[in-house]
Amino acid sequence: MPKAKGKTQRQKSGYNVNRKRVNRNAQRKAATQIKCSHIRHAWDHATSVRQNLAEMGLAGDPNKAVPLRKRKVKAMEVDTEERPKELVRKPYVLNDLETEASLPEKKGNTPSWDLIDYNHGEDYKAMARDENNYYQDTPKQIRNKINVYKCFYPAEWQDFLNSLRKNKMEVE
């Protein structure tokens, strides 16, 4: 059986390649990507992870951030040295994260309204055969999606039905 061609050929040196740039790009690609945009923009690659997080006012170790009370007999005065608090130099990161966390959550249990064409009424088989059924849901899947939506969002469901009634009256 023949051998793979690339495995048997000797490695040739690439003299026209800038090895310093290749290594730098390899290190940059191998570095972990920070998904949070607020932290990524404030990150300083010259400092350590602990220092970066301390400057942003974030905790690197949750056990040290919120220490548990240890049941000790009274500590000696020499042992009660507290280390100095790190200075928060980038408080805008913490403020941005708080505002992003305080935004309302998106609703996830909404069926696709293009699928629910109420010209069919409660006929789920007709909805399943409809050309607007892009996800090719079965009649039972459509029924279950509508029932879940009715349970979780009754006010929105009534608004939807009222808008359908208004549209029917305008058409007639």
TrEMBL record:
Regions that span the bilayer: none
Protein name: Nucleolar protein 16
Region (Disordered): 1-30
GO cellular component: nucleolus
Keyword Nucleus: yes
GO biological process: ribosomal large subunit biogenesis
Predominant localisation class: nucleus
Biased segments, Basic residues type: 1-10, 18-27
Organism the protein comes from: Aotus nancymaae (Ma's night monkey)
Domain of life: Eukaryota
